[in-house]
Write a structure and sequence with these properties.
Length: 265
């Protein structure tokens, strides 16, 4: 598969899950999104970039924090996600959503006081290019803050996705997926090479699903890829047997999130 085909395959996956992301995941991810915003030190009149903005929650919260004198740009590779983000705008006039990838950020040099990347960098194929681009668009003295999932052992959600994904045909992009930055050191080294010095902070978040089917329909799609329907049934049974001990009841996943925070020290 060429790089373009590969990116198209992945973008189609984000498009396909965008409505469900809005309905089921966004609220469940809200505490982790807020913890990212807390670490960003946003203030009035700042210019902010939100990378992989998805359905726009982080960007919209940032637009309220920077006020009318500030501005927020949310970029994403998925038209489906961007359509929902646009639809959510009510009275915000200081925010713009546009198509773009972190490996080629559609912005001039030194454009932003703060660059945010909530739960996205582990899905980016070329993180070295991304690190260079993040450094390029940050103003001198600006701040980068990202959040990434921990390993399957540290994150119930990621363990569920990893087990589901183990039934899938090989994913077209090796080295990316929910737990690809459970060890954030290689990305931190790429950032440092580009001039962005970071520390890591860790927090845990609970995410509840009321039923196994809801959890499956919401989170398995990210890793099962093009699995045939007969394979899906087998994978579902195996994941339920292994990871859903309460029959049809609800389950809470405990999840480690790492925050990669630019060190201004
Ligand atoms: C797990 S969602 C996170 C969305 C949002 N930031 C949040 O916290 O809810 C990951 C998002 O990153 C986007 N994405 C994936 N690869 C990307 C890339 N290379 N450049 C920009 N966005 C990307 C996807 O389309 C998707 O909307």
């Amino acid at each position: 598969m060429t790089n373009e085909e590969n990116q198209a395959w992945r973008t189609a996956m984000w498009d396909a899950i965008s409505e469900r992301y809005d309905r089921e995941l966004d609220l469940r991810f809200r505490p982790a999104q807020e913890a990212l915003l807390d670490r960003s030190g946003l203030g009035a009149n700042q210019s902010v970039l939100d990378i992989g903005t998805g359905t726009g929650s982080v960007a919209i919260a940032a637009s309220h924090a920077v006020g009318d004198g500030g501005d927020v740009t949310g970029i994403d590779v998925s038209d489906g996600m961007l359509r929902i983000a646009d639809r959510r705008l009510i009275e915000e006039t200081n925010i713009m959503f546009r198509k773009g990838s972190v490996e080629e950020i559609p912005a001039v040099d030194n454009a932003f006081d703060v660059v945010l990347a909530s739960l996205v960098m582990m899905f980016v194929p070329d993180r070295e290019a991304a690190a260079r681009e993040i450094a390029r668009v940050l103003k001198p003295g600006g701040r980068f803050v990202a959040s990434v999932w921990g390993s399957p052992e540290e994150c119930g959600l990621v363990k569920f996705q990893a087990l589901a994904g183990s039934f899938a045909p090989e994913q077209p992009t090796p080295g990316i997926g929910p737990s690809a930055l459970a060890d954030p050191l290689p990305f931190q080294a790429q950032l440092l090479d580009a001039g962005v010095d970071t520390d890591v902070e860790t927090e845990e978040f609970d995410i509840e699903f009321e039923t196994f089917d809801l959890a499956w329909d919401t989170i398995a799609t990210v890793t099962i890829g093009d699995l045939e329907p007969s394979g899906v049934a087998e994978a579902k049974r195996a994941v339920q047997d292994a990871l859903w001990p309460n029959g049809e009841g609800p389950q809470t996943f405990r999840n480690v999130v790492r925050f990669i925070v630019e060190n201004k020290g």
